[in-house]
Amino acid sequence: MEFAINCTRVPLRQGTRPNGIPADVGPAPALSGPVSDHVTPPRASIDGDALNLNRRVSPDGEDTLNARTLGSLGRLEELGANAESHGIDIIAVQEHRFYHPDNILKYHQVGSYQLVTSSASKNTVNSTVGGIGFLLSSKASDTLFSIESISPRIMVLEIDGNPKTTLVCVYSPHNSSVADEIENFYATLRSTIEQVPLHNFLVIAGDLNARLGPDETKFTFNSKTNRNGEMLKDFLEEFNLYTSNNSFMKPKDQLWTFESPLGDRAQIDYLIFRKKWRNSVRDSRSYSSFSSVGSDHRIVSATVKLSLRSSKKAKPHPMKMIDWEEVLSNPDMSKQFTIDVYNTFQSLSTSEIDAENIEEVYSSLIKSTEEVALATLPRRK
């Protein structure tokens, strides 16, 4: 199973390519243009994240990416092309900046992919900001069980399977936001995670605008924990979760996920899993593979190995195996079937049917019809 998560500014791909060769590593370019929700001038507040899913029973990668905006000419198409070239089935996207307040969810065709978005919003100067969503390959769409917008900053996607996979795309307020805003975000996130069954394979991916320092996690790019990092730490402890891209010893250039216009770097994008699945997550790091999308975030990926069982399918009703098209096209067969059903029903003794009990009469008629059909009519080839 492969996951890829994409955040407000496009993160670079983390993980391996379909042939097992690591994706290229390098710095994401610092972009000019509108400042995203991650940055609060003049102080740069650093944050971001994205997710990818391939339902294979072999090692899979999970990616997180921050897109900054997909409205610019060619950016959305470039995102789809990169996802296809790296074999990514699902990317969680933040800050796409598509504004559609009249539609809870909107579907955008991107080549063979489909982008499902929750609307961005307008700020005080009427600029479009934020917006989250999932980019899905045709394979991911075929296994999609449900997708729901919880809030402008949280979306939940479920992939069918045994166990089910629940993917949560998140986009946290930046570190300098008012306390109520960040507290409301985590309150909504907590209530969302509480609804996810404990046996589901859970992945939380996105732009968390949080720095975790060495006092909070063993392998980190950050020198200290910021306020959002404290909130994230408490959330992880409450739900027995951990960040995969802080769990493996990596060089510094494989840890950072965001680069500010001034060149400052930080690790603020995360892939989060339940600790019960820790042995299934084999690797996690940042990549620069999506730099052509034009984001100041890199994509974060995790290699996951799961043995997925097929969901049990109910056996079809025997009557559905009858070739009814052949029966309808053959008048003699249809007439004989009607006569046989009538005779079988009439042969039932009056002691077996209470004429005053219409439900019993109906049940007997259905039983007679099924018995005659299964005994005399042709089956579908």
TrEMBL record:
Superkingdom of the organism of origin: Eukaryota
Pfam families: Exo_endo_phos (PF03372)
Classification via SUPFAM superfamilies: DNase I-like
Gene Ontology molecular function terms on file: catalytic activity
Domain called Endonuclease/exonuclease/phosphatase: residue spans: 66-297
Name of the protein described by the UniProt record: Craniofacial development protein 2-like
